[in-house]
Structures are given as C-alpha cells and as structure tokens.
Design brief:
The chain has helices spanning 2-18, 176-189, 193-206, 209-222, 228-240, 244-261, 264-276; strands at 29-36, 39-46, 75-78, 82-84, 87-89, 92-99, 104-110, 127-153, 156-173. It is an alpha+beta fold. Mean pLDDT is 92; it is low at 4-8.
Length: 279
C-alpha cells in the first residue's frame, strides 16, 4: 500500500512539474526583416497596446527616456553602414531609445542592446547616433505600438514609429550605389584566383581533369604570393591526370613553401606523396 501511495505521489509531482500555463502576451514580440536597397535591416521589438489609456504625456511621459516599446530593448540591425537623418551609423545592432516631446522626439541608437528597458546607468559613450525628428499628429488612432518601413527608394527608406495619434519618421540612407558599383566592378573584372582554385579542386574529383589543370594553373598565376595549399592541389591534379613528373615538381614547391610557413601538416602530406610517386 505504501508503495502505491508513493508511486501516485511521484506521478502527481511529475505531472505538476511538467504542466505549463500558456496565456497571450500583453505585448507580443515582433521581428521585421526588410531589404532597403542592398542593405538588410532587422527590427526586433515588443508591441504594447493602448487599452483605453492615454499614452504620450501620461503612460509615456514627455521629456523622459523611453525604451520605445515594451519588455527587452527594441533592437535594429544593419548589414552595412547607413545614415540616419544624415548621421553616420556603422553596421551592427543597436537599441533604439527615444525621448518623446510634444513637438520633437530625440531618437538614440545605443550600442548596448542587452538591457531590459532603459539602462540603469546611461553611458554617453555608447550613443552611436542621436537625432531629433518632428512628431506628427495623425487622425486615426493606432491601438498597438508599431514600427514599420515605408517610402522606399534604391537609396533608402523611412522608419516610422506609430502609436496612439502620434507618428515619427526617420530617414535612413543606405549605400546602394557604392555597393552596386563594387559589384559591377567585381563582376566585370572576372573570376578571382580563389574562384579558379575552388573550381579546380571541385573538378579534380567531380569533373574534367584537364579543366582542373587549366584552372589551378590560372589560380597560381594570379596570386601575388605563392601558397603551399595551391601547389598541393596542383600536385594532386597532375597526379590524377597521369603526369607524375609535373606532380612531383608541384609537390616539391608546396613542400618548400609549407616548410617556410611552418605548416607541419602540409609538410607531411607532401613528403608522403613524393614517396608514393617515387621522388
């Protein structure tokens, strides 16, 4: 009887510890991933609702630093350096803090995005950019706090902060022209030595060995500094093509370069191959 009671008690405890109550979050989290021009921008934030409360000037006081949402920091990430209202901001992730006022808002991009709410001790050295933008009244109330992008061009967009009957918009400039020109120049310049190297290594095992020879030779000729791993692959390609004399020569070059670089692994690989090929 005691064993049965103990078993039932343990079973009840196990069920109790596994049970979880799930309820809707009052400020659900949101993630917005947006490409602006050629730049990836990601927003992560929590979305409180008004629920018949007066927001700005009351729930969110004027003149005080606000987390710009609810719960953990509202975060924005940029894949490239950008400009916010003309101010430079490096690529990376930032917390967005704001100081709402009746006429203008201060918007701060803060390098420490790990806070829950606003920082306990605000550090001016962590302010990557601070801008002042106009707060506009809108006729239709926005029940739930919203961050959204709009007014897209190839060079930028607007980041909009919307809640209650207030709208704030920030201009974001992205380096699309610069990135496009760099992409064009790279494409028109043709394959790099790394492209030829990767193609040669692939074709060595999966394709035309003669093409592999052609590509590895191009890769080596295009490098400013000789690389022991390039000549190692060249030796393997020549060996597979049946040209042991050329394979031995390439392996000796790779061995010499590997010894100068102090790479013991490649030294051993080349010595083993040279022994196998009768050098």
């Amino acid at each position: 009887m005691k064993k049965i009671v103990l078993f039932l008690s343990l079973a009840a405890f196990t069920i109790g510890t596994k049970a979880q109550v799930e309820t809707p979050q009052p400020s659900p989290t949101a993630k917005v991933e947006q490409v602006v021009g050629l730049t990836d921008i990601t927003l992560e934030y929590s979305r409180p609702s008004a629920r018949d409360r007066k927001i700005f000037g009351n729930l969110v006081p004027f003149g005080k630093l606000w987390r710009t949402g609810a719960n953990a920091n509202t975060k924005i990430s940029f894949s490239d350096p950008v400009k916010i209202e003309g101010k430079k901001l490096e690529a990376g992730t930032y917390a967005i803090f704001t100081t709402p006022n009746k006429g203008n808002w201060d918007v701060i991009f803060y390098t420490d995005s790990s806070n829950w709410g606003t920082p306990q001790k605000f550090d001016d050295n962590k302010v990557a950019a601070k801008v002042s933008v106009k707060a506009n009244a809108i006729p239709m109330p926005i029940e739930t706090f919203t961050l959204m992008f709009s007014d897209f061009t190839s060079d930028g967009a607007k980041l909009n902060i919307l809640w209650e009957k207030t709208a704030v918009a920030l201009n974001i400039e992205v380096p699309s022209k610069q990135k496009a020109i760099e992409s064009i120049e790279k494409a028109l310049a043709g394959p790099t030595n790394g492209d030829y190297y990767q193609a040669a290594v692939f074709l060595k095992d999966n394709g035309d060995i003669n093409k592999a020879k052609e590509y590895i030779e191009k890769a080596i000729s295009m490098r400013e500094q000789p690389a022991f791993w390039y000549h190692r692959q060249q030796s393997l390609i020549y060996a597979k093509a049946g040209d042991k004399k050329a394979a031995i020569k390439a392996a000796k070059t790779s061995l010499e370069l590997a010894e100068k670089a102090g790479n013991a692994d490649y030294v051993k690989l080349n010595k083993d191959s040279l022994k196998e090929w009768g050098a």
